[in-house]
Design brief:
Elements lengths: L1 E8 L3 H12 L4 E5 L5 H6 L1 H18 L17 H25 L3 E4 L2 E3 L5 E3 L2 E10 L3 E3 L12 E2 L1 H4 L10 E5 L3 H12 L3 E5 L13 H14 L2 E3 L3 E2 L3 E2 L4 E7 L2 E7 L1 E4 L3 E3 L6 H4 L23 E3 L10 H15 L14 E3 L4 E6 L2 H6 L4 E7 L4 H6 L5 E7 L4 E8 L2 H13 L4 H6 L9 H9 L8
Parallel strand pairs: 1-2, 1-6, 2-3, 6-18, 8-16, 9-10, 9-16, 10-11
Antiparallel strand pairs: 4-5, 5-6, 7-17, 12-14, 13-14, 14-15, 19-20, 20-23, 21-22, 22-23
Helix pairs in contact: 1-9, 3-4, 3-6
Bound molecules: nicotinamide-adenine-dinucleotide.
Length: 465
């Protein structure tokens, strides 16, 4: 039996953030992890996926080098998939080393093994029992697969495999099933790398059907289609059939039935909480019908006092940075402080496709549905000098505000939207008036000017808008 202030179950973003933050507050911490610390985000998700998206961006940029006055004497560039994956693995390795070192410096005890909650709210690992004043479950999530789309890791893969590819080349043809965040990001990578890519989405809109404002999602959808992604909305995908050299993918849309043969299929139809076999029942930790751990989101405490849960294993947005924020809430509570709960309607969302899509707060439709009298202004990137210089004028800023009131939602698609969105994040969370932000200066020439221009427009006047 070992006693700690905090025992953390799972070493992904929720778990390592809880451990680091608790240790920084002077608490003794044990972190139980069955694989490498870093979790899905570092080893099979955010970091490797964004590294591959960057490889695709470099390839796209080099392909357009001539337009910028740079000749390639050897002719056209070619993707070098193993090299892109070596770089991806190197970045992951470096971050893993950094994280392990940080945990060590903060004196977090990392316990290697599968942890289970016990009846008295402790955690057992390989016969040892770890007891904490507080236990934080950060069990994460796994890709969802369904019968007929059986994943073999070779021809039918999930993002777990796509982010850890050791293949010597890209497939020639791929079908991506599910046009959500993962499907859109990988469709963007594959399309830009020259793979013939078919995107099959069950819902009415083929690209990012849930989440972003339609105006910004549609810019991404148009860009993907123009670059060659074959997008099918309202697609009902049948059982996949293996052939000698690939996979047959039958699907039906309102336009009719089709069957395409591809070399590989990426299944990206959502993720499920990884809450099986963690001892939740024994500990009296309630789990809902979908497998998520039930929590009071003002404290992240579960139905079992003293046991908390954060990250993908709870039914809040499945984002690493949300897990970080929830970890802080849980630890503050264990410290006996008054935690500031996460405002889930105002978290930052980023889809790292080309072009990038980022948003925070309400979409126009959500604001209207909530009963607000809204005022909406949009500003295209087409006339933005910096966007022209970059050669990336596909983009839009859209701001939703309460009439004569604060900014309710900020939506952007275009170059570096992932970074620029944080100005909108501040505006939404500080409940700023668009006219206040519009009075602030944005550097010229910059992509941010499009945000300033959109804010100014709410005053009824404008500069270039
Ligand atoms: P998702 O829920 O974003 O998208 C899944 C999509 O698959 C949905 O649009 C759904 O309609 C569609 N779908 C479901 N069943 C289908 C079927 N049988 N045929 C065709 N389409 C079907 O899930 P995801 O893209 O798998 O991502 C999982 C999680 O990972 C999400 O919580 C997401 O937020 C997170 N994530 C975030 C980022 C990021 O923030 N940039 C990146 C990757 C993943």
């Amino acid at each position: 039996m070992s006693d700690y202030d905090v025992v953390v179950l799972g070493g992904g973003p929720g778990g390592y953030a809880a451990a680091l933050y608790a240790a920084s507050a002077g608490l003794s911490v044990a972190l139980v992890e069955k694989e490498k610390v870093g979790g899905t985000c570092l080893h099979r998700g955010c970091i490797p996926a964004k590294s591959l998206l960057h490889a695709a961006e470099v390839f796209r940029t080099v392909n357009h080098a001539a337009e910028h006055g740079v000749r390639l004497p050897e002719g056209k560039p070619e993707p070098d998939w193993p090299a892109a994956n070596r770089r991806r693995a190197g970045i992951v390795g470096q971050l893993h080393k950094g994280l392990s070192g940080l945990l060590k410096r903060r004196k977090v005890t990392v316990v290697d093994g599968w942890g289970r909650l016990t009846a008295d709210g402790a955690v057992s690992v390989d016969g040892d029992t770890l007891r904490g004043r507080g236990t934080i479950v950060c069990a994460g999530s796994v890709p969802r697969a369904i019968p007929g789309m059986d994943v073999d890791g070779e021809r039918v893969i999930t993002s777990d495999h796509a982010t850890n590819s050791e293949a010597d080349r890209l497939p020639e043809r791929i079908a991506v099933i599910g046009g959500g965040v993962i499907g859109s990001e990988f469709a963007s990578v594959y399309t830009d790398m020259g793979v013939s890519t078919t995107l099959l989405e069950a819902m009415q809109h083929g690209v990012l059907p849930i989440g972003p404002d339609r105006d910004v999602a549609d810019v991404l959808a148009r860009s993907l289609k123009r670059r060659g992604t074959d997008v099918h909305a309202e697609a009902r995908v049948g059982a996949l059939e293996r052939t000698g050299s690939g996979v047959l993918v039958p699907f039906e849309t309102p336009k009719g039935s089709e069957k395409i043969e591809v070399e590989q299929v990426l299944v990206s139809i959502g993720r499920l909480p990884a809450t099986k076999d963690i001892g939740a029942d024994e500990a009296g930790v309630r789990i809902d019908g979908r497998g998520f751990i039930e929590v009071d989101t003002t404290t992240m405490e579960t139905s079992r006092p003293g046991v908390y849960a954060v990250g993908d294993c709870v039914a809040t947005p499945g984002l690493a940075h949300v897990a970080y924020a929830e970890a802080v809430v849980a630890v503050d509570r264990i410290l006996g402080e008054q935690p500031v709960p996460v405002d889930y309607g105002k978290v930052p969302w980023v889809v790292y496709t080309h072009p990038e899509v980022a948003w925070t707060g309400m979409t126009e439709a959500e604001a209207r549905e909530a009963g607000y009298e809204v005022e909406v202004h949009k500003h295209s990137m087409a006339g933005n000098g910096r966007a022209m210089i970059l050669g990336e004028t596909d983009g839009l800023v859209k701001i939703v505000a309460q009439k004569d009131g604060p900014v309710l939602g900020f939506h952007m698609v275009g170059p570096w939207a992932s970074e620029l969105m944080h100005e909108g994040y501040l505006a939404v969370n500080w409940e700023a008036l668009p006219s206040d932000v519009g009075r602030l200066i944005h550097a010229h020439p910059s992509l941010s000017e499009a945000i300033g221009e959109t804010m100014i427009t709410f005053s009824g006047r404008s500069l270039h808008g």
